[in-house]
Write a structure and sequence with these properties.
Layout lengths: L2 E9 L6 E9 L15 E10 L3 H11 L3 E2 L3 E3 L4 E7 L4 E7 L5 H8 L4 E9 L2 H10 L10 E2 L5 E5 L9 E5 L1
Parallel strand pairs: 3-7, 8-11
Antiparallel strand pairs: 1-2, 3-8, 4-6, 5-6, 6-7, 9-10, 10-11
């Protein structure tokens, strides 16, 4: 194994004492070399979704108080939500409010009365290839097939228990 040794002078516990610290940094090739690259690529953060108990109040906060550009409220009955997008320049916030009795946001708001972060959305260049690859790596999805999301593009949610407690939405770029 090839390595580089770096010597750094470090002050000890007293002024008179000096220690030399030897640290080895590996210059070998990464462990994943030789494994074929994925046929899909992870892209940019598309949005952070926030569940809100009062859509009008939340929209007014971002538009009137913070000065952001916000979209109109759009119903997405197939997802059981109303959405409003807040433009931030480098990404967006998606405000979510329940639509209908069986909205997944209703359950979230019952546990989190004031609302809060619901999920993050990351773009992928090929959602079908991403799903096949992630399922092969034992990452569960919340539906069998991608659905059309708020931007009119295919989306898939990944199980938060497989993603360090974060609900991740993948959206085809």
């Amino acid at each position: 194994m090839a390595s580089t040794v770096l010597k750094v002078a470090v002050s000890g516990l007293s002024r008179c004492t000096r220690h030399t610290l030897l640290r080895t940094y590996s210059t070998t090739t990464p462990l994943h070399q030789g494994i074929p690259g994925s046929v899909w690529k992870l892209g940019r953060l598309n949005h952070i979704a926030i569940a809100v108990p009062d859509m009008e109040k939340a929209t007014a906060l971002y538009r009137d108080v913070l000065g952001a550009t916000v979209s109109d409220k759009v119903p997405l009955p197939e997802h059981g939500v109303y959405t409003v997008f807040v433009e931030l320049g480098n990404t967006k916030l998606e405000l979510l409010h329940p639509l209908g009795e069986k909205s997944p946001i209703s359950g979230f708001l019952q546990k989190n009365k004031s609302g809060g972060m619901h999920h993050i959305c990351i773009e992928v260049d090929d959602i079908n290839a991403a799903i096949v690859d992630l399922k092969a790596k034992n990452i569960r999805t919340l539906s069998a097939e991608p659905r059309i999301g708020a931007h009119g593009k295919p989306v898939m949610f990944l199980h938060p228990k497989d993603c360090d407690g974060v609900l991740v939405e993948l959206e085809e770029a």
